[in-house]
Each structure stands twice: as structure tokens, then as C-alpha cells.
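CHAIN AND CONFORMATION:
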Amino acid sequence: MKAVALTQYLPVTNPDSLMDVELSAPAVSGRDILVRVEAVSVNPVDTKVRAPKEKIEPQPRVLGWDAAGTVVAVGDDVTLFSVGDEVFYAGDITRPGSNSEYQLVDERIVGHKPQSLSMAEAAALPLTSITAWEGLFDRLKIDPDVTQDQKSLLIIGGAGGVGSVAIQLASQIAGLTVIATASRENTQRWCDEMGADHTINHRQDMAAQLAELGFPAVDYIFCLNDTAGHWATMTQVIKPQGMICSIVESDVPLDMEPLKSKSAGFIWEFMFTRAMYQTDDMAEQGQLLNQISKRMDADSLQTTLTEHLTPINAENLRKAHAMVEQGKMIGKIVLSGWE
């Protein structure tokens, strides 16, 4: 099968950073399904894993953690899918990725593709939708079944893939007052289009901007950009008994002391946790993807695809990685089709 892989961890400008290769198609067993991959998306995690380091892979390593495709075979223990089903998923960071014609994935972390979306539109959604859903409803403990129009949520970094979905989920499902941050005119406009009630600039004094809007403090914060850089502001503006969640690792220790007097909390969100540790609730990811799919088909949510390249090959994946590494993406970049 065709695939794009690496054996060395190199700058994306190096042609050997991602290479076209031929690999053997994997055999299916257990709870795995074998998917013919038809579209993939590129996320910051792809570029972080590929980033230069002193390591050589003895066999080509396939990256990629977002895909849409069709089931072509199922393991003996599979109960949720049949051959011919169209699916979408983010996968498992401990296993070979989606940048190949065929991929094995555990059925529990797979959802049925929205019927109303193309493969490319669907491939833009899994990783960001899972991250946004888990961050809001599992980590911040926002109740998706109760409208919370008296409570406020600050999303730091609203125009990226996760932010684009989080704005929609928070406003449409939870009914929260959503304040997103964006630093450019086009990204501010995008946040507004996604459904943010207010948009402020995270490169300026966020506390002052929030106060001007009538929010000297907020109930929840979802940090999708520079946790350490925004930490002082987050601990300042979080309400007593409020909650902060971040998806961005910090290269310095975070000072938890400012949260103590407020009885406020902080929690991480990492969407690979359930698959990585084979948690008892691993199937929640498949179920939440099905929820996303239903809402897409009901036209209550919209895809976040903004850039589309074809075909899926090393050259285009290097282009996509370079675009993501610039840190200025709005929405998601997707590749589809094989030559």
C-alpha cells in the first residue's frame, strides 16, 4: 500500500522529512477495523512528533491522527461496524497513523462519518472535535444537557481547529456566553462566524478587555494557546470555584498558588489518553464522534475545513506541516485522494 512515512526526524524543508513509501497492508484482528483512508488532516501534534530530534527509526514510521474512509475488513470481535461503513476518527498515537492507504484502528474510538459531509470535510473534524468535547464536558465538567446561559467561557485561541469546534459546542449545546480570543482581523471574524458572543485579542491585556465587556471574571477557561504565557491572566480572571483546562504543554512549572484562595481548579486535556491507556471508558470517543456526526447532519454544526490539498503524498504533507508550523492556521487543512 502507499504511505507517507519518516525514518529520521528532520526539518520539514528537508525532502526526507516525509517520504513516499510502499508498505505491506496490515492484517485485521480482534476489535480492530481496517479502513481504506480517503482523506486526512494535519494537526499540531503531527508537526511536534515529526520535529527534529536525534533518533532513527529502524522501519518507516507513519504519522497522521485524523482520517475519514471506508471499512474494508473487520476483526473477529468487532460489533460496531461492518464492511462498507464510512467512518471518521483520530486514532491512537501509539500505533501507525493515518497517512497510509489502509489503517488499523480500534472500533471503540471510531465514529460513523456524517452523511452530509464529504470525506475531506469529515477528516477535518475528529481530533479537534474529541479534544473540544472532552475539554468542555469531561474535563471542565460542563453539563451538555443543561443550558448554562448565565455562565461564561473564555476560549484562548479560538480560530484554530479545536477552538473552532469548541466555540460551536459551548454556544450551541451548553448555551454558554462564549468569549474567544484571536489576534488578527481575519481570525476574529472567523471566531464570530463560529458563534462566539465576543472576541478579544490575546496579544493585548485580556483582563482589561474582559472587564470592558462586563466580565471581570469568567466561570470557565479553555486554553488552546501558550499555557505558560497566559497563566497569570488565567489565574487572575477565573472566578472563585471556577475551572481552567489546557491542551498546551508548559515548558515551565505552573504556579498553582493563585488558585488556592479561589478554590479554583486546573486540569489537562489530552485526547489520546483513552486509547493510550486503554481506559474502561475508551468507547466514549466513538460515541461522542457519533454525536458530532448527528449534529453535523442536522446542520447544527459546521465543518472547519479551510485548506484542501490533493493528492495525499509526501510533497503535499510537507506543505501542510509547514503551514501548521507557522501557527497561523484558521480552521483545518485536509488532504484527500491517492495518486
